[in-house]
Design brief:
four-stranded antiparallel β-sheet, mainly beta, 48% strand, 123 residues, seven-stranded mixed β-sheet
Length: 123
């Protein structure tokens, strides 16, 4: 069993920045691919970013490329999402997830999920 806890969400003005953190339980954090997903009101959950077990490979959805950066610190069992140049369209609940493998961007490949943290971008 893996438990994930997101933090760092909040209210920010458009153009501002936030850094989300996801703390994972367990002693095998480095075995998991990690991802961030988000769900805006009235919309389906969507992929945002993911990172390989070692941190060397990353993927981003087109709408956040150049603005968001995913990273991980395996020694701290933590994955981060640095969000810069935030837009109102980024407003959503952001979820951290862990995967044993498979496609980095596929929701179905993620086995464990956090409870989410709200990000609200005002304009």
């Amino acid at each position: 069993q893996v438990q994930l806890v997101e933090s760092g969400g909040g209210l920010v003005q458009a153009g501002g920045s936030l850094r989300l953190s996801c703390a994972a339980s367990g002693r095998t954090f480095s075995n998991y691919r990690m991802g961030w997903f988000r769900q805006a009101p009235g919309k389906e959950r969507e992929f945002v970013a993911s990172v390989s077990q070692s941190g060397g490979i990353t993927y981003y959805t087109d709408s956040v490329k150049g603005r968001f950066t995913i990273s991980r610190d395996n020694a701290k069992n933590t994955v981060y999402l640095q969000m810069n140049s935030l837009k109102s369209e980024d407003t959503a609940v952001y979820y951290c997830a862990a995967s044993w493998g498979g496609a980095y961007t596929a929701i179905a490949n993620y086995d464990y999920w956090g409870r989410g943290t709200q990000v609200t971008v005002s304009s």
